[in-house]
Amino acid sequence: MCKSMLALVMSFVVAPCVVAQAPAPAAPLVPAGATRQIAPHVHLIPDGNLPIVPNVGIVVGTRAVLVVDTGLGDRNGRTVLAEAQKLAGGKPLYLVATHAHPEHDLGASALPAAQLIRSADQSRDESSDLNLAKIFASRSPAAAELLAGATFRKADIDFDKEYLLDLGGVKARLVAMGPNHTPGDTAILIVEDGVLFGGDIAMMRLPNFTSPQSSLRSWIAALDQFTAMKPRILVPSHGPVGDLAFVTRSRAYLALVRDETVKAKQQGQNLDAAITSVPALVQAKFPDATPMQMTAAIRSAYSEGVQP
After folding, report:
1. 194-237, pLDDT tens digit by residue?
2. Where are the domains of the chain?
3. Is 17 helix (H, G, I), strand (E, B) or coil?
4. The CATH number of the domain covering residues in 27-242
């Protein structure tokens, strides 16, 4: 048999083995023992670059401790609780979710002693949170196992626009940001340390609209509010920790989508035509923008009629 034919035969023999031996996706677990300090009062459990695993914050004061996000389901919530208790030394715990999506919120039941704080907008997002949990569970046996029996925990403390939590020596400013990534995003500014937990509003990835209420106008306003807060460190829901460069880039992207969509509308293009024409103009400057991201943002800009 000639060498070329032998190579062809071997490719059919070996290839299935390679596919069969491909590693299974890692389970979406918050890592135990990975907590690190990023500011005088702020500790972080990084997401490990795993899908549907959040960056989890633990803010330690002299009087109490605030936990930011919980992971997917009670097992992850218990991991977060154990990490928080190591730092708390018996101090009371408070808990906040950056938004009502399962990987951020549906581990809250594992922290029953923590006082859960929610904005009114976030409390109204219960059905969306649980519906998304069903979608997550259908995609992965590991996610299904983690979400089995998960419930939306009601708030112990409700607020409308802002809530200032004094942890002793450090204050957390909780701000309801309005309809952006979800109908009820919450940002948390750790005042003395200049650390901002920004949720999915600003991160290395470009903005992703996930609900019918998501608003381009509101999202740009939220980014401007982040800029006014002047954080030194920005902790996104997912991905690497950064700074205001995430905010600047996200705003430039949304402004470009807005401007090009309004131009298309003024030229007489209907929504479907704008969804077809605008992405190429946006991707020329933001090549990592995905069709799904752009379509949702274009829909919002077109309906709101925001002027450039």
Report:
1. 999 999 999 999 999 887 888 999 999 999 999 999 999 999 99
2. 27-242, 255-308
3. helix
4. 3.60.15.10
